[in-house]
């Protein structure tokens, strides 16, 4: 399942501004990777500037390590984000309040196994925290790599590359003009971000944020129907030469049935087909496409994975994905199609 920070947009912007316009890349989330000091340290060691954030019932507390985790004592900046009660650094009635104090780590300890932080009385007073016997229970812990934002020269170069890539996609023509639009099937674990990927692609070509597909972090996935999406540019001209096909996510004992994959590849599965993880579509289905044309078939398969949880999938799910991949390569059936992997 994709990891998402609990920081609000306002909290994240406030921290970014204070620490000099950093970009925060989520490395560790205790509720996903277990409340374990070992997991935290293994994930964050030698990552450069690092920020650790813990969430209590009433506030957000954290520390910023400019030098990162290096296996030795380093100076840290301890901060607290509070929703009410204080005015320091407030930017408006709804803005979080940011309080900082620089100390050594002796006055601030995160006890992940006990889901608590120990904060000295002096730190509590300076950050205006309420702690019982210097202990504050926590509900979550997150760790971020703090990256420098791109300078103007690199940004210009990326903008040119971005423009060239978009134009290349607009000008793309399927091989031999056999079909007008190449169909790209998105496969991947439940919650990997397939629907989000479709929204992102549509947003890029539209030039504005588009949320045509419902996305979320439900444990059973959000997409439960087979959907095909044509992409249009900002000027609403002719559709681009590819169609993105969204599917139910893959799970260990749930999600997309492996037999459904073949029906989708061969073009038998209609748009808006309601998936059933217990049984695949059959030729008896009222909307089953019995004689699909080449344009109805899948020409490219893309596996989508969440890079933050890529190494956390169970052995059963990994085996299922590998089997599907082997069968895809083996049973291409002479159709000109491609297999790609995408980490997001």
Summary of the model, kept short:
With 344 residues, this protein is α+β, with helices and mostly antiparallel strands. The chain contains 8 helices and 15 strands.
Share of helical residues? 25-40%
State the helix count.
8
Summing up helix and strand content along with how strands pair, one would put the structural category as alpha+beta
The secondary-structure element order is HEHHEEEEEEHEEHEHEEHEEHE
CATH architecture of the largest domain: 3-Layer(aba) Sandwich
Mean pLDDT: 79
Which fold name fills CATH's third level, the topology of the largest domain?
Rossmann fold
Strand order in the sheet with the most strands: 1-9-2-3-4-5
Number-wise, the strands total 15
Radius of gyration: 24 Å
Give the class-level CATH name of the largest domain.
Alpha Beta
State the end-to-end CA separation: 12 Å
The proportion of strand residues reads 25-35%
Description:
The protein is α+β, with helices and mostly antiparallel strands and 344 residues long. The protein has 2 domains: 9-148, no CATH class; 172-343, Rossmann fold. It contains 8 helices and 15 strands. It has helices at 9-18, 30-33, 37-44, 121-127, 152-171, 194-206, 258-265, 315-330; strands at residues 22-29, 50-55, 59-65, 76-82, 97-103, 108-111, 116-119, 135-137, 140-148, 182-187, 225-230, 242-246, 273-274, 300-305, 338-343. Helix 8 (315-330) links the parallel strand 14 and strand 15 (338-343). The radius of gyration is 24 Å and the shape is elongated. The chain starts with 8 loop residues before the first helix and ends with a strand.
